[in-house]
Amino acid sequence: MELEEKINNYWFAIEPYVFVGFSDKEVVLYNTLDKQIVESNKLEVVELMRETLQKENCGVLFLSYERYNHLDIRQFIFQLREKFMGDIIEVGLSNGKPIQLLPYYDFITKGVNPKNIYLSDNKNVLENLSEISIHVDSNISDRLLIPILRSIPNIVVFNVVGDWNDILNHEDLLFFLVNHSSNKYIICSYKNLTHLRIDLNNFKFKVSVHLPIEINEWNKSIDILYNHSLDVEYIFDVSSEEDCLKVELLTEKYKIEKFQLNPIYTGDNILFFKKHIYLSKEDILSASISIKDFYIRQSMNAYDFGKINIMSNGDVYANMDHPKLGNIYMNSIYDLVQKEIEEGLSWFRIRDQSPCDTCIYQWYCPSPSKYEIAIGYSNLCHVKPNSKKYE
Amino acid sequence: MIQTLIHSTVNNNYYIYDDRSRLSLLIHPEIKKVYEQFRDVDPYYLKKYAYLKKKGFFTETVVPQFKKVSEIDVLDSIIQTTQIVFEVTDSCNLNCVYCGYGKMFQVTDKREYNNLYIENAIKLLKYVFNLKAKSCKNKLMIGFYGGEPLLNMNFIQQIIDVVSQLNTNKILDIEYSMTTNATLIYKHLDFLVANKIYLTISLDGDKNNHAYRIFGKGEKNSFDTVIRNIDLIQEKCVKYFDKYVNFISVLHDRNSVKNIYEFIYSRYNKIPAIIELNMADCKPDKKDVLDRMFQSKRESETIYQNECLNKIQKTQYETSFFHELVNFVKYYNINYYVLNKISLYNKKEKYLPTGTCLPFSLKIFLTVKNKLLPCEKINFRYSLGKVNDNVEIDFQEIAQRYNYYFEHALDICERCYCYKFCGSCIFHFVNMDKLDSEDLNCDYFQDQENFEKTLYEYFSFLEKYPNEFFSIIENLN
Prior knowledge:
Chain A is built from 14 helices and 15 strands. By secondary structure, chain A is of the alpha/beta class. Chain B is an alpha/beta fold. The longest helix of chain B has 19 residues, at 395-413. The model of chain B has no long low-confidence stretch (mean pLDDT 93).
């Protein structure tokens, strides 16, 4: 494992599949291929890593024989090599300095505004749209809405959200979507799910369930959804451990395999959240995080980016907990998307606020979710428990 | 099938390139020895190689996944198109020796001194405007092409008026552009300036360099007239000249990249676009003549880069090599995800074969014979629709036709290491006009050996100029 002992200078590099998280005095390296970690709080090591990642070194640092033989550095490199997270190459083996093309992370520190990429002259801002949720009731106008939806690139997912009977009343909208090549979902409660139009077979269903269930309605919905062999996912609202147990019983009894739990913050169930939602260091580092995940977490909100909600009165929100962007009947879809990119609070809500901005696990954590907004803290973790209220 | 490979650089450093993950890894030379099955390898690198193999490097060969064009892709491309270009007239007052519509080429639609029917142009405009979403952020360029478009100013004036009317509801961000030989600018300068029309002026360098661009009668070099007009713009309309005037130069045996850059930059402080002589569809008996006139851009650039002592700083970013390097960072490196955020959510990436644009996604070109094409650089035999009483575009037929073309390219693209992005348009492939009888041939095909050589060039350059890597990423768009 140890290299032959000669007086060598080295090129030191970490592998591009390794992510490096810094705090003032620590460094945590994470191998995206196998979740291995190397941590250090040694001054020399932190400095070594900082220098390696400086632009002028382009991912490769000259490591003198003397520096290599500093005990902390030598041990650190030993660990890195053991976990295949970095290496040293004798300088004499090549005729010039090599480079390591690392992922370009950490836009903020480097002074690059990631929003500029989305507003590039060469890009159609609508290409950033990935999902549109249309909230329907008796007010929404299919006649006005359909031409707008038609002008949107065909990569978008459409969700039709509302009461089942209201959804069925929008025949023109459903007809337009049935014939659209995008993925389509109907998101509704199990209540009132009394009959089904056969031509909705190419929709997928997300059926929300708030506990306790109303058994008659529940049984009717189960009959209908099963009879038509639809692609159904259940979303169970839970606000306590008792709710979780109820869901377990229901899913067992009705053999429901495809379901999600949707934790609801009620204002007085913070202990439930601290136990089940808050993350510990172990939770954070045991998750499988890819290079793509690190890109996402530093440049966009994984839950909100690319999504808009069109309410029945035409109001448009990127996230319904944030101010509206405008109205689809009065503002163009271009302007609404552009507004979210330039001024919005949702698509680019990342962990750049205190206390996350000084946390070594800043980008190891998932994007801020709706729970941070509901509970009112910018971090829901046990790593920095003295967090401050959301700004 | 695409495999993980190892390449070197001029400094004798070694790198793994893994297409599957888009990762390039600096490696110890011992890894290369393991890869090449040498004996007496440091045991650590045997283990590291085994680790990388376990994680998919070297073992998971990639079979590129390609997608098909659908009807909705065609409609969507028209809705999102960024340019409508009109062949204003097929008349031209010049008779350039190398002109693609001239006597050395097999021309699909003969030049018959026709102007484009304004009614048909308006029908196309109405068709596209109807589909466009209303917004001042929605950009649309209206282009005037020829022949020499300034020979039909009446058309241009009318189109600008009509666009202005159509746009009262849509409030699109409209801009105008024109490709011109600049011989008639003195007559229309005020109009061009008033309407902020972007000009691309054809100029091949100094007078000797420009000698193939001759007037139709008398074969006189057009250089003096062209320069007089350009000087007029520069003198009378400084701001317009700075922002709206650009140059395009054809490279041939009477000029060079060096000549072109030095003349145009020193005189006008602009870096021109340089294109090679069009060789497609030349008459068999003229091939020798054209071959003698042809000069490779890459070779001329290399001479300029290597031999010219006082290079213009900005030109290093305009070379074919640098553009290809940018595309490498943009499409073949892990930093692809800096720009392509939507891809962060896609588990399986699919590509269109070749580097052909989706039909009409970049532009809709209307010819004087009322044909619709996706670009003015494509032979008119490949028209995708017509404008007669109505705009006739059959989305299904276009999708089927493109899929038919692409099926013939699949065999090449599946084996090509540049399958993710190559920029080469299928309409310019060798044998494109003989699909039923001959195999297509792509001039830009890269097998493993060629791709290793390409990576050798890119990484040798970046080792020498590492800051360019960051500069490329920070300027991606």
